[in-house]
Amino acid sequence: MSHIVFLLVPGLHLLDLAGPAQVFSTASDFGHSYTLSYIAEERLVPTAQGLPLLARLDWPELGPEDLIVVPGWRALTLAGGPVIGAACLQALRDHHARGGTVASVCAGAEALGRAGLLDGRHCTTHHDVQDELARRYPGATVVRDVLYTADDRVVTSAGIASGIDLALHLVATRHGPAVAAQVARDMVVYARRNGHEPQASAMLRYRSHLDDTVHHAQDLLDARFDQPLPLSALAAAVGVSERTLTRLFTRATGGLTPLRYQQTLRLERAEHLISHGATVDAAARAVGFEDPRMLRRLRARERAT
After folding, report:
1. Rounded to whole angstroms, what are the CA distances from 240 to 64, 101, 212?
2. What is the value of pTM for the model shown?
Protein backbone atom coordinates (compact mmCIF):
# COMPACT_ATOMS: atom_id res chain seq x y z
CA MET A 1 0.00 0.00 0.00
CA SER A 2 1.28 3.48 -0.90
CA HIS A 3 0.41 6.69 0.87
CA ILE A 4 -0.42 9.76 -1.23
CA VAL A 5 -0.21 12.97 0.78
CA PHE A 6 -1.60 16.18 -0.66
CA LEU A 7 -0.08 19.30 0.87
CA LEU A 8 -2.83 21.93 0.78
CA VAL A 9 -2.04 25.64 0.73
CA PRO A 10 -4.50 28.55 0.92
CA GLY A 11 -6.07 29.49 -2.40
CA LEU A 12 -5.41 26.14 -4.06
CA HIS A 13 -7.24 25.23 -7.27
CA LEU A 14 -9.74 22.45 -6.71
CA LEU A 15 -8.94 20.67 -9.99
CA ASP A 16 -5.22 20.68 -9.17
CA LEU A 17 -6.18 18.57 -6.16
CA ALA A 18 -9.23 16.65 -7.35
CA GLY A 19 -7.73 15.46 -10.66
CA PRO A 20 -4.74 13.56 -9.22
CA ALA A 21 -6.77 12.44 -6.20
CA GLN A 22 -9.37 10.90 -8.52
CA VAL A 23 -6.66 9.05 -10.48
CA PHE A 24 -5.22 7.40 -7.37
CA SER A 25 -8.66 6.75 -5.91
CA THR A 26 -9.75 5.06 -9.14
CA ALA A 27 -6.56 2.98 -9.19
CA SER A 28 -7.50 1.81 -5.69
CA ASP A 29 -10.92 0.79 -7.00
CA PHE A 30 -9.11 -1.53 -9.41
CA GLY A 31 -7.16 -3.22 -6.62
CA HIS A 32 -4.02 -1.08 -6.44
CA SER A 33 -4.26 0.14 -2.87
CA TYR A 34 -3.57 3.77 -2.06
CA THR A 35 -4.24 5.75 1.09
CA LEU A 36 -4.92 9.45 0.46
CA SER A 37 -4.28 12.09 3.12
CA TYR A 38 -4.72 15.86 3.04
CA ILE A 39 -2.30 17.89 5.14
CA ALA A 40 -2.21 21.63 5.81
CA GLU A 41 -0.87 24.12 8.34
CA GLU A 42 -4.42 25.13 9.31
CA ARG A 43 -7.44 22.86 9.55
CA LEU A 44 -9.62 25.01 7.29
CA VAL A 45 -8.11 25.64 3.87
CA PRO A 46 -9.77 28.21 1.55
CA THR A 47 -9.71 27.39 -2.16
CA ALA A 48 -9.62 29.58 -5.24
CA GLN A 49 -13.12 28.40 -6.14
CA GLY A 50 -14.62 29.33 -2.77
CA LEU A 51 -15.16 25.84 -1.36
CA PRO A 52 -13.29 25.46 1.95
CA LEU A 53 -11.55 22.16 2.71
CA LEU A 54 -10.85 20.45 6.03
CA ALA A 55 -7.34 19.06 6.37
CA ARG A 56 -5.39 17.19 9.01
CA LEU A 57 -2.42 18.83 10.71
CA ASP A 58 -0.28 15.80 11.57
CA TRP A 59 1.94 14.19 8.95
CA PRO A 60 1.68 10.40 8.54
CA GLU A 61 4.81 8.29 8.58
CA LEU A 62 6.01 8.00 5.00
CA GLY A 63 8.37 5.59 3.27
CA PRO A 64 10.24 5.60 -0.05
CA GLU A 65 7.24 4.13 -1.89
CA ASP A 66 5.01 7.05 -0.87
CA LEU A 67 4.27 10.34 -2.63
CA ILE A 68 3.71 13.97 -1.64
CA VAL A 69 1.77 16.15 -4.09
CA VAL A 70 1.54 19.93 -3.88
CA PRO A 71 -1.47 21.27 -5.84
CA GLY A 72 -1.18 24.75 -7.33
CA TRP A 73 -2.92 27.89 -6.21
CA ARG A 74 -4.27 31.16 -7.55
CA ALA A 75 -1.81 34.07 -7.46
CA LEU A 76 -0.69 36.71 -9.92
CA THR A 77 2.93 35.80 -9.29
CA LEU A 78 4.79 32.95 -7.68
CA ALA A 79 6.54 35.36 -5.35
CA GLY A 80 3.17 36.70 -4.25
CA GLY A 81 1.76 33.27 -3.50
CA PRO A 82 0.81 31.90 -0.09
CA VAL A 83 3.31 31.47 2.70
CA ILE A 84 4.41 27.88 3.18
CA GLY A 85 5.81 27.18 6.62
CA ALA A 86 9.31 25.90 7.32
CA ALA A 87 7.97 22.62 8.72
CA CYS A 88 6.13 21.76 5.50
CA LEU A 89 9.13 22.63 3.34
CA GLN A 90 11.31 20.48 5.57
CA ALA A 91 8.82 17.62 5.22
CA LEU A 92 9.22 17.83 1.44
CA ARG A 93 13.01 17.81 1.71
CA ASP A 94 13.08 14.96 4.21
CA HIS A 95 10.74 12.76 2.21
CA HIS A 96 12.81 13.16 -0.95
CA ALA A 97 16.04 12.58 0.97
CA ARG A 98 14.62 9.29 2.26
CA GLY A 99 14.00 8.10 -1.30
CA GLY A 100 10.39 9.25 -1.69
CA THR A 101 8.83 11.06 -4.63
CA VAL A 102 7.51 14.62 -4.54
CA ALA A 103 5.25 16.13 -7.17
CA SER A 104 3.58 19.43 -7.98
CA VAL A 105 0.74 20.66 -10.12
CA CYS A 106 0.84 24.09 -11.74
CA ALA A 107 2.13 26.76 -9.33
CA GLY A 108 2.86 24.04 -6.79
CA ALA A 109 6.33 23.87 -8.37
CA GLU A 110 7.06 27.01 -6.36
CA ALA A 111 6.79 24.99 -3.15
CA LEU A 112 9.33 22.49 -4.47
CA GLY A 113 11.56 25.41 -5.43
CA ARG A 114 11.35 26.90 -1.94
CA ALA A 115 12.27 23.49 -0.55
CA GLY A 116 15.39 23.44 -2.73
CA LEU A 117 14.24 20.44 -4.75
CA LEU A 118 14.33 22.04 -8.21
CA ASP A 119 18.04 22.86 -8.27
CA GLY A 120 19.84 20.80 -10.89
CA ARG A 121 16.61 19.23 -12.13
CA HIS A 122 14.16 19.63 -14.98
CA CYS A 123 10.74 20.99 -14.08
CA THR A 124 7.70 22.74 -15.51
CA THR A 125 4.69 24.75 -14.40
CA HIS A 126 1.79 26.76 -15.82
CA HIS A 127 2.83 28.70 -18.92
CA ASP A 128 1.89 32.02 -17.31
CA VAL A 129 4.60 31.66 -14.64
CA GLN A 130 7.29 29.62 -16.39
CA ASP A 131 9.52 32.64 -16.91
CA GLU A 132 9.18 33.67 -13.28
CA LEU A 133 9.98 30.15 -12.07
CA ALA A 134 13.14 30.17 -14.19
CA ARG A 135 14.17 33.53 -12.73
CA ARG A 136 13.47 32.53 -9.15
CA TYR A 137 15.31 29.22 -9.41
CA PRO A 138 18.18 29.64 -11.88
CA GLY A 139 19.61 26.29 -10.85
CA ALA A 140 16.57 24.54 -12.33
CA THR A 141 15.90 23.78 -16.00
CA VAL A 142 12.36 24.91 -16.75
CA VAL A 143 10.96 22.87 -19.65
CA ARG A 144 8.26 24.56 -21.70
CA ASP A 145 5.46 23.06 -23.80
CA VAL A 146 5.24 19.76 -21.93
CA LEU A 147 2.52 18.34 -19.72
CA TYR A 148 4.90 17.09 -17.03
CA THR A 149 8.52 16.36 -16.23
CA ALA A 150 10.10 13.69 -14.05
CA ASP A 151 13.67 14.07 -12.80
CA ASP A 152 15.16 12.15 -9.88
CA ARG A 153 11.85 11.60 -8.08
CA VAL A 154 10.81 15.22 -8.55
CA VAL A 155 7.75 15.30 -10.80
CA THR A 156 6.15 18.56 -11.94
CA SER A 157 3.21 19.30 -14.20
CA ALA A 158 1.91 22.27 -16.14
CA GLY A 159 -1.43 24.00 -15.67
CA ILE A 160 -4.36 22.62 -13.68
CA ALA A 161 -5.77 19.68 -15.71
CA SER A 162 -2.26 18.38 -16.44
CA GLY A 163 -2.22 17.08 -12.88
CA ILE A 164 -4.35 14.23 -14.21
CA ASP A 165 -1.67 13.43 -16.80
CA LEU A 166 1.00 13.55 -14.11
CA ALA A 167 -0.94 11.14 -11.91
CA LEU A 168 -1.63 8.78 -14.83
CA HIS A 169 2.10 8.82 -15.59
CA LEU A 170 2.89 7.84 -12.00
CA VAL A 171 0.31 5.05 -12.10
CA ALA A 172 1.77 3.81 -15.39
CA THR A 173 5.28 3.91 -13.94
CA ARG A 174 4.26 1.85 -10.93
CA HIS A 175 1.65 -0.52 -12.34
CA GLY A 176 2.17 -0.42 -16.11
CA PRO A 177 0.46 1.48 -18.92
CA ALA A 178 -2.46 -0.94 -19.11
CA VAL A 179 -3.55 0.03 -15.59
CA ALA A 180 -3.15 3.73 -16.41
CA ALA A 181 -5.25 3.23 -19.54
CA GLN A 182 -7.90 1.46 -17.46
CA VAL A 183 -8.00 4.34 -14.98
CA ALA A 184 -8.18 6.92 -17.77
CA ARG A 185 -10.99 5.03 -19.43
CA ASP A 186 -12.97 4.85 -16.18
CA MET A 187 -12.50 8.60 -15.67
CA VAL A 188 -13.50 9.26 -19.31
CA VAL A 189 -10.42 11.37 -19.96
CA TYR A 190 -7.89 11.38 -22.76
CA ALA A 191 -4.71 9.62 -21.71
CA ARG A 192 -2.40 12.14 -23.33
CA ARG A 193 1.29 11.84 -24.10
CA ASN A 194 3.93 14.03 -22.62
CA GLY A 195 5.36 16.12 -25.45
CA HIS A 196 8.86 15.54 -24.06
CA GLU A 197 8.44 11.75 -24.42
CA PRO A 198 7.17 10.98 -27.94
CA GLN A 199 7.70 7.26 -27.40
CA ALA A 200 4.85 7.00 -24.88
CA SER A 201 3.25 3.60 -24.83
CA ALA A 202 0.77 2.59 -27.51
CA MET A 203 -1.43 1.40 -24.66
CA LEU A 204 -2.03 5.08 -23.93
CA ARG A 205 -1.47 6.55 -27.38
CA TYR A 206 -4.55 4.98 -28.95
CA ARG A 207 -6.95 5.53 -26.06
CA SER A 208 -8.13 9.01 -27.01
CA HIS A 209 -11.66 7.93 -27.88
CA LEU A 210 -14.93 7.15 -26.13
CA ASP A 211 -15.95 3.88 -27.79
CA ASP A 212 -16.56 1.45 -24.95
CA THR A 213 -16.55 -1.62 -27.19
CA VAL A 214 -13.12 -0.72 -28.55
CA HIS A 215 -11.81 0.06 -25.05
CA HIS A 216 -12.96 -3.41 -23.97
CA ALA A 217 -11.17 -5.00 -26.92
CA GLN A 218 -8.04 -2.97 -26.15
CA ASP A 219 -8.14 -4.09 -22.52
CA LEU A 220 -8.05 -7.70 -23.70
CA LEU A 221 -5.28 -7.05 -26.20
CA ASP A 222 -3.24 -5.07 -23.67
CA ALA A 223 -3.41 -7.94 -21.19
CA ARG A 224 -2.76 -10.71 -23.74
CA PHE A 225 -0.75 -9.06 -26.51
CA ASP A 226 1.87 -11.84 -26.36
CA GLN A 227 -0.72 -14.59 -26.83
CA PRO A 228 -2.76 -15.73 -29.86
CA LEU A 229 -6.07 -13.84 -29.86
CA PRO A 230 -7.97 -14.42 -33.11
CA LEU A 231 -10.35 -11.76 -34.32
CA SER A 232 -13.24 -14.20 -33.91
CA ALA A 233 -12.46 -14.75 -30.23
CA LEU A 234 -11.92 -11.05 -29.63
CA ALA A 235 -15.21 -10.13 -31.30
CA ALA A 236 -17.07 -12.77 -29.31
CA ALA A 237 -15.56 -11.50 -26.06
CA VAL A 238 -16.83 -7.96 -26.66
CA GLY A 239 -20.17 -9.06 -28.07
CA VAL A 240 -20.06 -7.87 -31.69
CA SER A 241 -19.35 -9.39 -35.08
CA GLU A 242 -15.84 -9.50 -36.50
CA ARG A 243 -16.80 -7.00 -39.18
CA THR A 244 -18.33 -4.59 -36.68
CA LEU A 245 -15.34 -4.80 -34.36
CA THR A 246 -12.90 -4.12 -37.18
CA ARG A 247 -14.95 -1.12 -38.33
CA LEU A 248 -15.28 0.35 -34.82
CA PHE A 249 -11.65 -0.35 -33.93
CA THR A 250 -10.28 1.22 -37.10
CA ARG A 251 -12.40 4.34 -36.65
CA ALA A 252 -11.53 4.79 -32.96
CA THR A 253 -7.78 4.31 -33.32
CA GLY A 254 -7.26 6.33 -36.47
CA GLY A 255 -6.75 3.43 -38.85
CA LEU A 256 -5.46 0.46 -36.84
CA THR A 257 -7.09 -2.94 -37.07
CA PRO A 258 -7.08 -5.13 -33.93
CA LEU A 259 -4.25 -7.20 -35.44
CA ARG A 260 -2.17 -4.13 -36.25
CA TYR A 261 -2.76 -2.81 -32.74
CA GLN A 262 -1.55 -6.10 -31.25
CA GLN A 263 1.50 -6.03 -33.52
CA THR A 264 2.23 -2.46 -32.39
CA LEU A 265 2.16 -3.58 -28.76
CA ARG A 266 4.43 -6.52 -29.54
CA LEU A 267 6.87 -4.37 -31.51
CA GLU A 268 7.04 -1.77 -28.75
CA ARG A 269 7.77 -4.41 -26.12
CA ALA A 270 10.29 -6.14 -28.35
CA GLU A 271 12.17 -2.88 -28.93
CA HIS A 272 12.34 -2.40 -25.17
CA LEU A 273 13.79 -5.90 -24.70
CA ILE A 274 16.31 -5.43 -27.52
CA SER A 275 17.43 -2.09 -26.06
CA HIS A 276 18.16 -3.96 -22.81
CA GLY A 277 20.34 -6.60 -24.48
CA ALA A 278 17.96 -9.25 -25.81
CA THR A 279 18.56 -10.69 -29.26
CA VAL A 280 15.94 -10.18 -31.95
CA ASP A 281 15.07 -13.89 -31.85
CA ALA A 282 14.68 -13.90 -28.06
CA ALA A 283 12.60 -10.72 -28.11
CA ALA A 284 10.38 -12.13 -30.84
CA ARG A 285 9.64 -15.24 -28.81
CA ALA A 286 9.04 -13.22 -25.64
CA VAL A 287 6.36 -11.05 -27.27
CA GLY A 288 4.55 -13.90 -28.99
CA PHE A 289 5.96 -14.13 -32.53
CA GLU A 290 6.45 -17.75 -33.57
CA ASP A 291 8.72 -16.65 -36.43
CA PRO A 292 11.36 -13.97 -35.68
CA ARG A 293 11.17 -12.90 -39.33
CA MET A 294 7.84 -11.25 -38.57
CA LEU A 295 9.49 -9.03 -35.97
CA ARG A 296 12.26 -8.16 -38.40
CA ARG A 297 9.71 -7.17 -41.05
CA LEU A 298 7.78 -5.01 -38.59
CA ARG A 299 10.95 -3.29 -37.41
CA ALA A 300 11.98 -2.59 -41.01
CA ARG A 301 8.53 -1.20 -41.84
CA GLU A 302 8.61 1.02 -38.76
CA ARG A 303 12.01 2.46 -39.71
CA ALA A 304 10.79 3.15 -43.25
CA THR A 305 7.84 5.28 -42.07
Report:
1. 46, 44, 12
2. 0.74
